[in-house]
Write a structure and sequence with these properties.
The protein is of the alpha/beta class. The chain has helices at residues 34-48, 71-75, 85-94, 98-105, 121-128, 155-163, 165-174, 180-185, 198-210, 214-226, 232-246, 250-261, and strands spanning 6-11, 17-22, 55-60, 110-114, 117-119, 131-135, 139-141, 177-179, 191-193. Strand 1 (6-11) and strand 2 form a beta hairpin.
């Protein structure tokens, strides 16, 4: 029986945190093939549709987080890399570009636990997550120029939004590899931990996120995503609209009640609170 491309587990007694493991250690978790692209779409859509999931952790099986594209297929002009320039562009749209679009549609906060090399599209995969924690064994490279291609998965859009234009340009134009401490210094990752501590640290962070109301977490992520491209006026309009909804949730009332009653809140994400006088 074939192993799934993405292994999905629910953690803790209530299952509020999901662990997603890119499960192709034999290829160092390369991103290729319809099964891979469809798996990201399916898993992320399922998490987004389930309000009991409040946060997720993404990591890689084996020694690598993700080695990027399949260089053997690239050399042989096979799969996504076959055909004329126009056909290759269409292959990218129908192939690997489905992964960033799937992440963009998913409102669940995602922590990347970067356990090893994150190279090329693997570096961009880490950037698709909201927060990145690295093992001291992790390595990062926007290395497309080293094999004579551009970041066809959206890396030139993603990377500047994480580390700023100048540092993103340096990574993309040199293709050079950074170690975990260098990645920390430029803000590509939030912290670096020992390999044996990585998953525990990432899950603990996801659990701290998951302690909050699920719908409000999704709305907050939505505002963070919108801030990448919107104006201040657009951001304020969106924040006001979502704030109006948030003030009418049952979880908002529970948070206030718990504060005044000096007890831990119990959030359910089960819908709007009854209106005053209803």
């Amino acid at each position: 029986m074939n192993e799934p491309v993405l292994r999905l587990e629910r953690l803790g007694p209530e299952g509020h945190v999901a662990l997603i493991t890119l499960n192709r250690p034999a290829t160092r978790n390369a991103l290729s093939g319809e099964d891979c692209f469809a798996a990201f779409e399916t898993v992320l859509a399922a998490l987004d549709a389930d309000l009991s999931v409040r946060a997720a952790v993404l990591t890689g099986a084996g020694s690598a987080f993700c080695s990027g594209g399949n260089l053997a297929e690239m050399r042989d002009r096979h799969g996504m890399f076959a055909g004329s320039p126009d056909e290759i562009a269409a292959n990218y749209r129908a192939g690997i570009q489905r992964i960033p679009r799937a992440f963009a549609r998913c409102r669940v906060p995602i922590v990347a636990a970067v356990n090893g090399p994150a190279i090329g599209a693997g570096n961009d995969l880490a950037c698709l997550c909201d927060i990145r924690i690295a093992s001291s064994a992790a390595r990062f490279a926007e290395s497309f120029v080293k094999v004579g291609i551009v970041p066809g998965d959206g890396g030139c859009w993603l990377l500047p939004r994480v580390i700023g234009h100048a540092r993103a340009a340096e990574m993309a134009l040199t293709g050079e590899t950074l170690d975990a401490q260098q990645a920390l210094a430029i803000g590509l990752v939030s912290r670096v931990v020992a390999p044996e501590q990585l998953l525990d640290e990432a899950v603990a962070l996801a659990q701290r996120i998951a302690a909050n109301p699920p719908q409000v977490l999704r709305w907050t992520k939505q505002l963070l995503q919108q801030a990448h491209t919107g104006t201040l006026d657009e951001a304020l309009d969106a924040a006001g609209r979502l704030q109006g909804l948030a003030h009418h949730t049952a979880d908002h009332r529970e948070a206030l009640a718990a504060f005044f009653e000096k007890r831990p809140p119990v959030f359910t994400g089960t819908g709007m609170a009854p209106q005053e006088g209803a």
